[in-house]
Amino acid sequence: MNHIKAIIFDLDNTILDRTSTFGSFTHSFINHYFKHLESTQKVYDRIIELDQDGYKDKDELFAELIEELPWMAKPQRTELLDFYRKEYVNSAVLMKGAKEVIAHSRKKYKTGLITNGKTSIQYGKIDKLGLRNDFDLILVSEEAGIKKPDPGIFEMALNKLRLKPEECIYVGDHPANDIEGAAKTGMETIWIQVNQPWNPEITARPRHSIKHMSELLELL
Question: How far is CA 90 from CA 25, 104, 121, 149, in A?
């Protein structure tokens, strides 16, 4: 690890517990719109299913929910998107051990964050978690104009940090977007196993595979 100068993280389901965050948002959503139902478990399960662990475009998601769910009165999609922007950000929850890992990393390395998503939503979550000043670099795909797994966004981070690929380790949960994308630039990687299964077609191999962020305290 003597050659490593920066640790760069993914956000959702790496630093942010995206599963808990969206689950909390979904409960708020149901409490707001479906008080007329005696049981809301099926509604909750369907929202989680359609969301596809965050990889479903939110315009598409809410258009589907408007058609499928048992509304008292169907809302406009713009209303649901406004509700989402506010309540989803307010539901942000840190991954267990993430704060300690970031603090540990900052003692020894530069730190960065690369995340796909809407600028306002991703920065909203970062600020809700109080992490804005914990990174030397933050790149959000919408403002960057390029998204993972395109190696270009990783190269952009390297240029801003003024480092070589082999001087950086990227930590993320998505085999293609995070591990393969970063590896194509020459970065070493650490895969955190959350919800995304490994794709056997991916040839990149992470330096380590972990199941909990706290494992990084011994690895970094």
Answer: 8, 26, 10, 28
Q: From 87, 85, 114, select the one nearest 14 (Cα to Cα).
A: 114
Q: What is the residue whose two structure tokens read 């139902």?
A: 37
- Two structure tokens written together for 22: 């969206």
Q: Cα dihedral sign for 207, 210, 212, 216?
A: negative
For residue 9, give the H/E element and its range: strand 6-9
187-202 residue pLDDT tens: 999 999 999 999 999 9
Q: Hunting for tokens 């591990």 — which residue is that?
A: 179
pLDDT at 85: 94
> What are the CA-CA distances from residue 47 to residues 4, 21, 32, 63, 92 (Å)?
41, 13, 14, 12, 18
pTM: 0.94
Residue type, 94: L
Its sign, for the CA torsion 146, 148, 152, 158, is: positive
What percentage of residues in the chain have a pLDDT greater than 90? 99
In DSSP terms, 169 is beta-bridged to: 7, 188
Tens of pLDDT, residue by residue over 44-95, are 999 999 999 999 999 999 999 999 999 999 999 999 999 999 999 999 999 9
Neighbours of 99 (CB within 10 A): 16
Predicted local confidence at residue 1, as pLDDT: 76
pLDDT value of residue 2:
81
Strands 137-140 and 110-115: parallel
Tell me how long the chain is: 220
